[in-house]
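Students often ask why we bother encoding 3D structure as a string. The short answer is that it lets us treat folding as translation between two languages. Here is a chain of 125 residues written in the first language.
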Amino acid sequence: MPYIIEYYSDAVQDKVMALPKTMLARYFSLTDRMEVNGPNLGRPHTESFGDDLCELRIKGAEGIARVFFCSLIGRRIMVLHVFIKKSEKTPLKERRIAEARLKEVKNADAQRVKSQGTGQPRRPR
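And here it is in the second language, the structure alphabet:
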């Protein structure tokens, strides 16, 4: 069963689709692989920041971009934030945006699962 790529918001999806041509081509190539193989493509393509926050590392003729994402229950990959890298180190501001969105998405996902239950019948005691 394949993984599904979702976006935190329409604005995030629009920003991804506005990436320069070679970066967008690389993004599609890597996310196609993620849909089949899962979110962990390994270095140099993906890297974990811990606490379920990961980044997709995109390099193109126009420069370097980073796409922050997380994995959710049900084989879902949520794209949280994207930016074009202008310095060697990932700016703290960009990471903080992704971390805030991660927290929001994880809380919403936990609530969704909780409201649906586990789908398992309870055993009598």
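Translate back mentally: The chain has three helices and five strands. Keep this in mind for the problem set.
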